[in-house]
């Protein structure tokens, strides 16, 4: 037998052997018998049930998380808008504000000091000056006689009466409430107001300015009317430009 | 002489140890391929004994028979006819014939000694 012939025979018998073995293995897959008794089966069942319960719990937790994320996503923008709106309202003075601050009382001068009967009128110029001073010294929110001072607040004399936001200021003592950023600011404002020139000038109008001690909690009421904006128009966003 | 037997043993061991098994639906093809391979092998032995052995015929016959048998079985599956039985029958008959020839030749050789 030639060498080549032997080699090819060997090769082919090897392949046949391989195929036989594989076929044998595939056909003769040993039958796996279940030899567990009732007790073992029960234990196995228990284990599987625990696993199932655990998996269900996990699924539930994940679903809940998913739902939370969903609602968060939905409410996120709405909440942001609401927050912005509230912030803007607060800035515009449409909400009651409570914070550290100072209360200033403007009252009539005692009658004994006066020579004869006089009108007690608060001049708008003086009030404006006082207001400017307050703003200069760090006032954040101010109300005069229960009227909130906002950006569009007008203090002026109409028919002999000083009016703020269209309401008369003739009931003395008049209370000016000032809210500052911090209590330290309130103290500083208090000190400055004690030596304020504007306060002194009220004396000319037969009025007395009394600055009360700074408090931790002073409440300034909200602006009562709705803010009317005239001559302003929102920009029409029609060209897709921002 | 003993090398082919050694090859067979090595092949079987390899197959058993490799932990390799084919899916159930393909075991038909493999069985028929085994049959074809065996047929070729015995045909080769007979040819060798009759001194008409041809290397090319033997090796090409081996692969060609396997492929033919497998494709016949495949066709049978798709036609809904058990065509692989035809292959089994053909190979079986040829296997018997080949073995019978080998037997006679061996007997004749023995008796002449």
UniProtKB/TrEMBL annotation, chain A:
Keyword 4Fe-4S assigned: no
Secreted found in the keyword field: no
Key words of the record: Coiled coil
UniProt xrefs under InterPro entries: DUF881
Protein name: DUF881 domain-containing protein
Superkingdom: Bacteria
Coiled coil (residue ranges): 42-91
UniProtKB/TrEMBL annotation, chain B:
Transmembrane segments: 28-45, 57-77, 83-106
Localisation: Cell membrane
InterPro entries on file: DUF1290
Keywords: Cell membrane, Membrane, Transmembrane, Transmembrane helix
Topology relative to the membrane: Multi-pass membrane protein
Keyword set includes Nucleotide-binding: no
An annotated GO cellular component: plasma membrane
Family in the record: Belongs to the sbp family.
Protein name, as recorded: DUF1290 domain-containing protein
């Amino acid at each position: 037998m030639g060498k080549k012939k032997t080699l090819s025979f060997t090769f082919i018998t090897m392949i046949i052997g391989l195929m036989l073995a594989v076929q044998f293995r595939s056909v003769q897959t040993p039958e796996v018998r279940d030899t567990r008794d009732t007790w073992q089966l029960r234990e196995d069942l228990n284990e599987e049930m625990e696993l199932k319960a655990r998996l269900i719990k996990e699924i539930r937790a994940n679903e809940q998380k998913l739902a939370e994320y969903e609602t968060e996503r939905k409410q996120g923008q709405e909440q942001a808008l609401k927050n912005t709106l509230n912030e803007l309202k607060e800035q515009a003075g449409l909400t009651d504000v409570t914070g550290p601050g100072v209360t200033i009382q403007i009252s009539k001068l005692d009658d004994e000091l006066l020579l004869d009967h006089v009108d007690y009128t608060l001049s708008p110029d003086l009030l404006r000056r006082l207001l400017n001073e307050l703003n200069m010294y760090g006032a954040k929110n101010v109300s005069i006689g229960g009227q909130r001072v906002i950006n569009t607040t007008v203090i002026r004399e109409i028919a002999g009466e000083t009016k703020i936001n269209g309401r008369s200021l003739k009931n003395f003592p008049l209370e000016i409430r000032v809210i500052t950023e911090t209590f330290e600011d309130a103290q500083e404002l208090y000190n400055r107001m004690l030596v304020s020139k504007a306060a002194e000038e009220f004396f000319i109008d037969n009025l007395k300015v009394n600055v009360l001690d700074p408090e931790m909690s002073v409440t300034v009421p909200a602006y009562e009317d709705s803010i009317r904006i005239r001559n302003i128009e929102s920009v029409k966003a029609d060209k897709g430009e921002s | 002489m003993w090398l082919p037997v050694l090859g067979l043993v090595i092949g079987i061991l390899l197959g058993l140890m490799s932990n390799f098994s084919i899916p159930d639906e393909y075991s038909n093809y493999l069985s028929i391929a085994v049959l074809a391979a065996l047929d070729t092998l015995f045909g080769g032995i007979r040819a060798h004994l009759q001194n008409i052995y041809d290397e090319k015929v033997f090796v090409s016959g081996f692969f060609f028979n396997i492929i033919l048998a497998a494709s016949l079985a495949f066709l049978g599956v798709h036609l809904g006819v058990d065509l692989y039985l035809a292959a089994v029958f053909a190979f079986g008959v040829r296997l018997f014939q080949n073995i019978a020839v080998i037997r006679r030749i061996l007997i004749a050789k023995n008796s002449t000694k």
